[in-house]
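To whoever picks this up:

The parser on our side crashed when reading a file containing two proteins. I've narrowed it down to the boundary between the first structure block and the second sequence. Both blocks are reproduced below exactly, byte for byte. First block:
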Amino acid sequence: MFTALLIDTVSIQPYIFGSNKLKENIGGSYIIEKIVFHKLMMEELRKQLETELSEDWNKGNYQLKLTTNDTISCEIGYIGGGNAMVLFRNKDDCKPFIKNFTLKMLSQYPGIKTAFGQIDNFNPDEFKDSRQRLHKAFLSNRSLQAVNVLPFKHGIVRDC
């Protein structure tokens, strides 16, 4: 059993389509998929857990290594469509990751809003049931979020 964390970009459409320029729309989409999840999230996981993360999760017929290798403390379930699932061996690693990842993301890319769902007894052998419970936890957490974060500048443009 593992702790599963579902990360979703709640404000993906206002962030991507916040401009009338196609170049900025494409840039916003690229920021969400490639930079926030593939770069920022992976860097924070590597830094916090001091471990190397596998990029094998996006290959077909992938089997979780957490179930067979006790030295792995975290593994990516999937990344795509503005959301990601991360599996932790130790549930105490989850909260600091959420705090550090959110702080870094909001400071570097203002305007992106995220919501998190977490369950502590995710069973890969019963993936469908565990995924439904995780999604239910995510929906209840997302409905509690009433934060209105206004960026101090347009989120797509980075300072030189």
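<<boundary where parser fails>>
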Amino acid sequence: MKKILLLLSIAGYTIASQDINEIKFQGLTQISNEIALETLHLKDNSKYTLPEINKAIKKFYNFNYFNNIWTTDIDNTLTFHFTEKPFIAKLTMTGYKNRDEELESLYMSMGIKKGTMYTPKKLKKAKKALLIALEREGYINSTVDIDVETINDTSVALTFEVNKGSEIIVTNVSYKGVKALDIGDIEDVIANKETDCCFTWFFGQNDGEMDFEQLEYDSLRIRDLYLQNGYLDAKVTPAFSKIDFNTNTASIEYTIDEGNQYTVNDIIIYLDEEIEKVDTLYPELKLEKDDIFNITKLRKDQTFIKTAIANKGYAYTQVNYDIKPNKENHTVDIVYNAIPGDKVYIQDVVISGNSRTLDRVIRRNVYLAPTDLYNLTDLKD
């Protein structure tokens, strides 16, 4: 209705075309005059009709940058006037998160940041995302109030006032099927632990606060722990949680099928001998024949092989591994396939942001220089 009233307020317009000597735009900062003219499809020293102006104003509204648009025609100078939506000049949050890094990440997940345009729709979406973040951290029935303060015609300050709801406390965690591993070792790797009933404030005690965001990863952490202890066939169900909203407490249950423990039967590295002598690599591996299989050691060996090859100039080295279990005798063969790619030399070393230190002072502490052969260890150092 506003658009129609704005259009009808152009005094003296008829369906007949009107001459244009000049086209102007006032209050326009979000789009350039060139883009505005392209949207308008009109030029200086041409003619326009009321339907054409009506169509153009609708197009401008579709940018979603403006609260108000109107036109005036004085001495054949057609002027489009824009009142832009305000920008978010200041963001503040109380009652939740106070570190800058945490807030920056939180605002990003909320789809809001300083310098962007303010709209009620964007604010509603940000509030919903904030409440979801609170629930994921275990705060149930939280509330968020938003204070919108107008700084001037073009900017606002937003304050998110968070009242965190009650935390869900994990009072019991059960592990069905666990025989081979110690429960304490499992509790060391998961995020959602059973509360220690007394002195939860004391160092080392578990407060038992439920972290919904981490809950889905806890079963994967338990599975990885079994892989570190040789149980290749171990299966861990996703966490099954029961929440009592009357007492704000929860119990969590995992069902685990441990399977059998595997030992290493053989380790094979496929690599071009001209690049690296394979015999020099085997003694340095963390995982050896007859060892209990350990996925962590395997990953470290994968990184070691890659580094050894990359240190000879092969910057794009890839090392893939294949685990071949023998289910009858509970052994496993590990095969590494190294793909080195081409040798690479350093073309240039660029240092930026060193406003306080001379460039040459930094360079003499850098292990790589132009024309040097690429070396992964030197790069990390």
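After patching the parser it read the second block fine. The longest helix spans residues 120-136. The longest strand covers residues 143-152.
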